[in-house]
Amino acid sequence: MAEDLVLDTAIRDWVLIPLSVVMVLIGILRYFVSKLMLSSQLPDPKIVKEGQVIVRARNLRAAANFIPPKSFRSRRVYFSNEENGLLFVPKGQAQNPQAQMFSDPNMAMDMMKKNLSMIIPQTLTFAWVNFFFSGFVAAKIPFPLTQRFRSMLQNGIDLSTVDVSYVSSRSWYFLNLFGLRGLFSLILGEENATDDTQRMMQMSGFGFDPSKSLGAEKDGLDIVQHEWALPKFEHRAEAALKKLIK
Amino acid sequence: MVSKTEETQLNRLENQVDNGGGGAWDYLCLVRKLKVRRSEKVFKYGLSILNDPKKRSALGPEEWTLYEQVAIAAMDCQCLDVTKDCIKVLQKKFPESKRVGRLNGMLLEAKGSWAEAEKAYSSLLEDNSLDQVIHKRRVAMAKAQGNISKAIELLNKYLEIFMADHDAWRELADIYVSLQMYKQAAFCYEELILSQPTVPLYHLAYADVLYTLGGLENLQTAKKYYASTIDLTGGKNTRALFGICLCTSAIAQVSKGRNKEDKESPELQSLAATALEKDYKQRAADKLGLLTSALRSLKI
Predict the structure, then answer these.
(1) Helix, strand or coil for residue B3?
(2) For residue A193, which of A125, A105, A116 has the smallest C-alpha distance?
(3) What is the predicted ipTM?
(4) What is the DSSP letter of B264?
(5) What's the pLDDT tens digit per position in B35-73?
(6) Contact (CB<8Å) B234/A240
(7) Distance between CA B296 and CA B249 in Å, rounded?
(8) Average of pLDDT values for B217-236?
(9) What are the residues facing A167 on neighbouring strands?
(10) Contact present, B24 and B48 (Cβ < 8 Å)
(11) What's the CA gap between A171 and A124, in Å, rounded?
């Protein structure tokens, strides 16, 4: 257990604050650059149609009990019919979306642009931090940590006896990276390009969206048992009227 | 559908603006958000804001949205000169804009030059074949020219792609009812009920169509949908109450010879009649005599 290290206030003035300020500025810069580079992406008709089909199928599933059984059955057949049902995706086509995504020049370009605008600033800032701000203790985390975090948080510091709560500036960089998201949504409004983590989650689930959700909707629709709710309504109407007349 | 709170808010703002207390800009924003059609008021108050340079500069970037809103309202009130001026200003500011192109197309429509408007819309569609508003304008144009079959065809094609657009389904149902194609209209109303099951209007319209189609099964279904309308509106919908009475008597007539299978809700008709009488006594007491004689003739 090492004794308490006294950190120079100059570290705070010249490391922590400038790093945060620089990251905020870079974030704002990226936001404006992304707005400039916004190419009006023409939505693909097939994807739009699939999206709408999904909404309609979902409505059918949700409100199935409000329409007569015959209409429900005819609609179900229309959707999940083997030959030309809207939701039916033959096995061969299921793999296409991902391949399409990479071969379609427009979409690939767009994704590359988005990736670049995210990766380059991050890499540059990280390299800058490493070059200028390494080899010293930058801050002390207020709560105690286990030894496992040593390699992650104390990268530039080559002393093994220093308490793990004393971290290098690299960890301050990462803290800022994830923490400034809230600040950006305050300054720049909801839609801002600095939402990296969100975009990373989106990218992983992109390609398979259409056909998988179609299949999921079709299964959901097949499961639904139609129970016509309308007869109940007659009794409820009676009750409502009785109350009204009283 | 506009909710009740929004409706009261709109009426309050309208009264406020009409009686000379400010708030014109809030009113215009609310009208734009709720997409209600109040063209005369929008035209009057929007134009007064636009003609006053101080108020205009106070709007900042919203000025152009106001120009668009006033242009459309002016077209609705047939003041085409004002429209032309607004569009000129917008075109100077946004030379290559599709929105301005759309306004130009609407101006041609308002002037009545259908062919040119059609050309303008098709060229806009070439750039972006998935623009919903332009597709709908083409349907409106076909309907205005009286070419209902073309309107139906265009609307069906639109719905093949954008099948979750319930306004379009509503329009199609209206057109079918006007052409007396009730089976297709019933299908459209079913779509509407599926997408918004708690809106009593659609249940009512669906019940009307089913009743018009006739036949024992349809009449029974219609009765159920009138009942659901009553339930959703708490018994206040006069048309649904009438519908119940008519349905029950029609069913009784159709199934005169056969056994009456469904005795699910025998009291419904008498209850509906009583509710109607009470309603008329409250709101139109002089017509009560007509009502009682009509109801009596139905019960036969």
Answers:
(1) coil
(2) A116
(3) 0.74
(4) S
(5) 888 888 888 888 888 888 888 788 778 888 888 888 888
(6) yes
(7) 11
(8) 85
(9) A139
(10) yes
(11) 16
Nearest residue, CB atoms, B228 vs list A62, A233, A241 = A233
Whole-angstrom distance, CA of residue B247 vs CA of residue B241: 10
Tokens coding B45: 């108050």
Of B194, B228, B278, the CB nearest to A63: B194
What's the number of CA atoms in the CB half-sphere (13 Å) around residue A3? 1
Along chain A (246 residues), what's the average pLDDT of each consecutive run of 10 residues?
Answer: 68 81 84 72 72 82 82 82 63 53 60 74 84 79 78 73 77 83 74 52 48 75 79 77 75
Q: Do B267 and A42 touch (CB under 8 A)?
A: no
State the number of CA atoms in the 13 A half-sphere of B233 facing the CB: 18
Dig out the tokens for B128 from the structure: 């972006």
- All residues at 6 or more sequence positions from B60 whose CB lies less than 8 Å from its CB, including other chains: none
Q: CA B9, CA A154: separation in Å to the nearest integer?
A: 59
A127's tokens: 């390299």
Q: Could you tell me if B225 and B250 are in contact, meaning their C-beta atoms sit under 8 angstroms apart?
A: no
SS (H, E, C) A168-210: CHHHHHHHHHHHHHHHHHHHHCCCCCCCHHHHHHHHHCCCCHH
Q: Helices B268-283 & B288-298, crossing angle to 10 degrees?
A: 170
Q: CB-based contact (8 Å) between B272 and chain A?
A: yes
Cβ–Cβ contacts within 10 Å for residue A23, how many? Answer: 23
CB atoms under 10 Å from CB of B14, counted, come to: 16
End-to-end CA distance of chain A: 81
What are phi and psi for residue A124, nearest 5 degrees? Answer: -60, -45
Give tens-digit pLDDT for B123-132. Answer: 888 887 778 8
Q: Which of A45, A55, A241 sits opposite B161 (nearest CB)?
A: A45
Dist. CA B63–CA B117, nearest whole Å: 26
Q: How confident is the model at residue B9 (pLDDT cuts 50, 70, 90)?
A: confident
Interchain contact B216–A (C-beta under 8 A): no
